[in-house]
Amino acid sequence: AEWARQKKSRRQDHLLHALSKDIVEQCAKRDVETIAVGHPKNIRDDSDWGRHGNKRLHDWAFETLLSHIEYKAEERGISVERVPEGKLKTSKTCCECGKEADSNRVERGLYVCESCELVANSDLNAAENMRSTVTPSPSQDRSNGCLAQPSVRLFDKSTGRVAPQEQVVP
Known about the structure:
Blueprint: H1 2-29, E1 34-39, H2 50-59, H3 62-75, E2 79-84, H4 85-88, E3 105-107, E4 110-112, E5 119-121, H5 122-134, E6 153-156, E7 161-164
Helix pairs in contact: 1-3
């Protein structure tokens, strides 16, 4: 049983290194100067999500992934800013008009603002809110960036790297 835990740990460690490398490479390709990362500080405190939910929450290695991103980004001259998620209410606030309402988050993945009628992916809306705390008035056009073109990236077992979904061999 110990060897199985060690094997799982090695695989998870490799995945986190591959994922952080891919994130930093994508940012370097796009000349990103600062990576804003949502930091779910104290998320494990006073939370009871049931037996399976608690296990998933405590197995979530966000701090390890974040530290990998930070040191790899530093090597490339990219700064990383941890944005505390709890205070921002990024999921409930419209990135266009700034109105905050619980009802804007219609369901998982769908964000509809009742004020300005913005319809967006809820994660992209939250990411734009997070970005605006780091870069309030960007000088560049953001219409063709990662937020405008979300993609699915998967771990490719054959290469041991993270790659776009269409390049991963099933």
